[in-house]
Amino acid sequence: MSYQASGTIKCWKKYDCLGCGAVFRHKFERAVSGQGGTAEQAEANAQQAGIAALQNQVDTIPCPECGRVQPRMVGHDKNNTHFGLVWAFLTAGVVVLLVGANDVMTRDVSAYATAGIALLALLAHFLTAKTDPNANQDANRARALEKVQSGSVEVIRTGDPSNGEPPPPLTTGGHRVYLALALVAVLAALVPVAMRHLNGWALADADPPVLGPGDTFRISFPDKIDCVKSTWAGTPQLTWDQPLNGAAVFSNNDSWGMSMSVKSSEMHTHPTLWADVKLPPNPDLQDKELSGTITMSVRYPRAEAGDRMSTQTTNVTKTFKVKLVEGERVEFVPHVLVGRVGLQHCAHAAGRVGVRAARGAHEVGLAAGPRRIARHSAGRPAAGRTGPPPRRGPRRGRGAAARAQTVGAVARPAARHARAPGARAARSAARKRRCNEMRSITSACQTPYSTGATGTTCTSTSAATKCPPPIRYNRPQ
């Protein structure tokens, strides 16, 4: 039996503005849920989900006093955008690679499409990183004042823009490094095409598309068969349009018995028929154009009604023409290797730049430290040290002079501390204030803004029950 606990968090979230030192809060509401083997465990998991939502989820609310969007809000929004771009362009790149691998588009078109996707990803990440939500703080302030009038935002303490700090930079050194790698990914996707054009290699209607003496290439047939479990056997015959000795041709050679154990999805499959041609390692074939015809007899098992199977035979024919390149055997020429490495580096670099940009956005969001927040919260620069200096231990010596010197070393700080009886209490209060304000800037949850708005209800697979006690977030985290 499993239990499901669900509830809604409704509370105030408080922020200290780095632009003017104002303190404001806004209404925060999230639906949370948790599962567990018992009602208590389900509620505990829902509690943890609520705490995680308070700590990690941020609403973008500008400061009502100066219109500044706080660094944590900026970093949170950019972080989500960067990760969304990573998944979107990664999906598009995988689709292009799969389409190109299945010969739906040519190799050159696949390279151009991959480079285009990488370039769009680079531009999208760059614009996301450089977009400044604080470019128009007057518009931000007007939008925040509307929320103040509606009651969803409250100003706890007014601020002074003259005491504000400039916002942290939108990009870091990591952004620039990984954006440069994204540009390299665009160029890497074009390496196969560039190498082919620089060497004058012609594309052949075969796989691989660049051939030389001694290479093996594959010819695919457009014909389809309806067979069981993609099982078939081909007997190809090769006829050249010009005399050529030493070439060999072979194809798939599956075998099957009187019965086969297959799934329902394997009863009717339509594999691609192919034949491989092995060229002789003759240097005289360099820069030659070869053409021929392959005729292949194909045997395959076909599913019949009543779980029966019969062996069928068909003939397929394909005419081809290939142009061999000049130079040594190109099975070791780095065209295929560089092409694969280029595409892999393109995908890897494009993904890394998105992830690093998201991390950079998170770093920008955490750029404000507690001391800087405390300074602006106080409305004035942080004061220097007050009260007695650190007490030093007694100096080593002998006799009454040494003892008097020791007593004096202890008495002088005590006297200064006596002249400022509230110094220690003031320092303690300042430390507590900085601590509390740091909690608030890191998504602290204050008292609920609606009585009875929080709670959980546990439901099991057999019955519904109330989880004791209801969830309540009414203290700072």
Summary, kept brief:
The chain has 477 residues and is of the alpha+beta class. The protein has helices spanning 39-56, 71-101, 107-130, 137-150, 173-189, 191-199, 335-365, 370-378, 399-419, 423-441, and strands spanning 3-16, 23-36, 153-157, 216-224, 233-240, 248-251, 272-278, 289-304, 308-323, 456-460, 464-465.
What does this structure look like?
The protein is an alpha+beta fold and 477 residues long. The protein has a domain of 125 residues. It contains ten helices and eleven strands. It has a five-stranded antiparallel β-sheet with strand order 3-2-1-10-11. It is 40% helix and 21% strand.
What would you call the structural class? Answer: alpha+beta
Instruction: State the end-to-end distance.
Output: 33 Å
Average residue-wise pLDDT: 74
Largest sheet, in brief, is:
5 strands, antiparallel
Give the oligomeric state of the chains in this entry, treating copies of one chain as homo and distinct chains as hetero: single chain
> Rough shape?
elongated
Q: Residue share in helices?
A: 40-55%
Question: Which consecutive residue ranges, at least 5 long each, have pLDDT under 50?
Answer: 328-343, 364-398, 400-421, 433-477
The fraction of residues in strands falls at 15-25%
H-E string: EEHHHHEHHEEEEEEHHHHEE
Descriptors:
477 residues; alpha+beta; five-stranded antiparallel β-sheet; three-stranded antiparallel β-sheet
Helices and strands in order:
Elements: E1 3-16, E2 23-36, H1 39-56, H2 71-101, H3 107-130, H4 137-150, E3 153-157, H5 173-189, H6 191-199, E4 216-224, E5 233-240, E6 248-251, E7 272-278, E8 289-304, E9 308-323, H7 335-365, H8 370-378, H9 399-419, H10 423-441, E10 456-460, E11 464-465
Antiparallel strand pairs: 1-2, 1-10, 2-3, 4-7, 5-8, 6-7, 8-9, 10-11
Helix pairs in contact: 2-3, 2-7, 3-5, 3-7, 5-7, 6-7, 8-10
